[in-house]
Amino acid sequence: MEINLEKVDAVRDRTGVSYKEAKEALEKCGGDVIDTIIYIEEKNGGTWGDNLSDKSNEVMDKVKEILKKGNVTRIQLKRNNEIVMNIPITAGAIGAIISPPIAVLGLATALASKCRVEIVKDDGEVIDVNEMTKESIDNVVDKVNEYKDKFEPNGSSEFEKKDENDFSNEFSKEDQDK
How far, in Å, are 67, 103, 106, 155 from residue 98 at the CA level? Predict the structure, then answer.
């Protein structure tokens, strides 16, 4: 049988192999498209459905592994070194996804009430959210002060100076016109 581009495309569409693999398989199967598809499926270890099932099982295993790791990693809320709340990070993440404003409000309330928020990883490492938050706030304050100094070098901002200069220029133009 003749091997042409239509047959190669048909084999590629059904099996996802390259042009070269499709042409070689067609040559081995005498140019018959159906036999070629069956040949490639058997060569690759199963049908398209089998491959999809294998892939979905791999994805489910990964999700289970992530959830297991997320359940081991915990968010602890402490006040006076006593654990007030201890929840898996997975539950915290789900809560944050379902209602971000409530999650932010809860975190702000915990920080304002001088509670310590810690993330305890499965290997025992502790991440102090309070310190991270303090560093972030310090960075924002530094940036605000930097811009404030930039726009107010001598007690007034550059915008105000520019406005004053424009205003005085306008008066001098009016004086010249008269």
Answer: 17, 9, 14, 47
Cα gap 130→136, rounded to integer Å: 10
Question: Closest Cα partner for 130 from 155, 101, 153, 108?
Answer: 108
Query: Any residues with CB less than 8 A from the CB of 78 and at least 6 apart, and which?
Result: 84, 115, 116, 117, 118
Task: Report the candidate in 67, 56, 123, 125 with the shortest Cα–Cα distance to residue 94.
Answer: 67
Task: Give the start-to-end residue ranges of the domains of the chain.
Answer: 5-44, 52-147
CA–CA separation, 95 and 176 (whole Å): 69
pLDDT tens-digit map of 73-94? 888 888 888 888 888 888 888 8
Q: What is the pTM assigned to this prediction?
A: 0.42
